[in-house]
Design a protein that fits this description.
- The protein is an alpha/beta fold and 342 residues long.
- It has two domains: 70 residues; 247 residues, 2-enoyl-CoA Hydratase, Chain A, domain 1, CATH 3.90.226.10.
- Strands 1, 2, 3, 4, 5, 6, 7 and 8 form an eight-stranded mixed β-sheet that branches.
- The longest helix has 49 residues.
- It has twelve helices and eight strands.
């Protein structure tokens, strides 16, 4: 007889005042038996709940261990390689302090590739519209330092979709640059974005109130007409950063650049096919072809430093989006960035 049937029979006997054997029983015995059966049923349910709780906890722990193992395995792949390989570092996205393409992450991957005893060359795969001039220069300078420290280990930049502005700034630090014939290359210039709402405020009857200590503390405020003196000051700043960019490209590319090209440093962009003739890149190719035909070592090991597990989980949940918005609001209004496409 099943447990359900037993409980049903018990309730039927109770209603009739029977003891389960056809005889009568007193009220105390009836109450004791009822409480006993209820306690036993409760214990059974508690045991079942505990078993399921333990099962789910163990399953979650196993998932975390597998995830950790995959991350550790990927991060130690290069150290486990006992034969020559080409190290690959990926720079993907805007080069900004709060992205996965920031200088710290990219530089860590580059160092890992150079320091490995079995790596014969390092390839930096770039797909970036640009970003911060500071972050771009950090990566560029470290590339030059690593090349000087490991003179027998070349560093190649391979452009996938684009290496524009700050992305090209970084590429210029490589031994040689390769791209697809349709890749976007160039955009050697500096920009600063802003907006003005003065006329709209007048139409809406909005009065702007501002208190500052310092004549130019509200530099280029969107709520007041442009101050010619401030505009000239900022244009001078942008020109200085632009000259730093041009110098980095000239130092990195040297005599390969076709300096007679009109608009080479104007912010224009070119295809990979056009960039070869301009001296902006050295040839056409991708990661596999460069490893095979240039490095002569076909085995490619990805040594890119990954973002933390927490960061990736937050990004998947969309928290990274809200964090980015908050970060953008808190940044100063005046921010120069490389990249017409950024």
């Amino acid at each position: 007889m099943s447990e359900l049937e037993k409980m049903s029979a018990f309730r039927h006997d109770e209603e009739l005042g029977l003891d389960g054997k056809g005889g009568k029983k007193d009220a105390d015995a009836w109450m004791r038996e009822l409480l006993t059966r209820l306690a036993e049923s409760s214990l059974v349910e508690q045991r079942r709940a505990r078993r399921w709780g333990v099962f789910f906890k163990l399953a979650f722990l196993a998932y975390l261990l597998l995830l950790l193992g995959a991350i550790i395995g990927g991060s130690t792949e290069s150290s486990l390689s006992d034969e020559p390989f080409t190290a690959l570092v990926t720079l993907d996205g805007p080069i900004m302090d709060d992205t996965s393409a920031n200088a710290d992450i990219v530089i860590e991957g580059l160092r890992k590739g150079f320091e490995s005893d079995h790596s014969k060359a390092v390839i930096l795969r770039i797909n970036s519209p640009g970003g911060s001039p500071v972050q771009s220069n950090y990566i560029y300078q470290e590339m030059l330092r690593l090349r000087a420290k490991y003179p027998n280990k070349p560093l190649y930049a391979v452009v996938s979709e684009m290496a524009a502005s700050g992305g090209y700034y970084v590429a210029a630090g490589a031994t040689a640059i390769y791209a697809d014939q349709a890749s976007i290359v160039g955009s050697i210039g500096v920009r600063m974005d802003g907006f003005g709402v003065v006329d709209a405020m007048k139409m809406l009857g909005i009065e702007y109130r501002e208190l500052t200590a310092g004549d130019h503390k509200a530099l280029l405020s969107p709520f007041v007409p442009v101050n010619p003196e401030e505009k000239a000051h900022m244009e001078g700043l942008l020109n200085e950063v632009h000259q730093q960019f041009i110098k980095a490209v000239k130092d990195g590319r040297g005599e390969r650049l076709n300096l007679e090209t009109q608009g080479l440093f104007s912010g224009l962009i070119w295809t990979g096919q056009q960039a070869v003739g301009l001296g902006l890149i050295d040839g056409l190719g991708d990661v596999e072809s460069v490893a095979r035909d240039v490095v002569k070592v076909e085995k490619v090991v990805d040594v890119t430093t990954e973002a933390s597990v927490l960061d990736r989980l937050l990004a998947r949940l969309g928290v990274a989006v809200s964090a980015g918005v908050s970060s953008g609001i808190s940044k100063t209004l005046i921010q120069s960035q490389y990249g017409v496409l950024h």
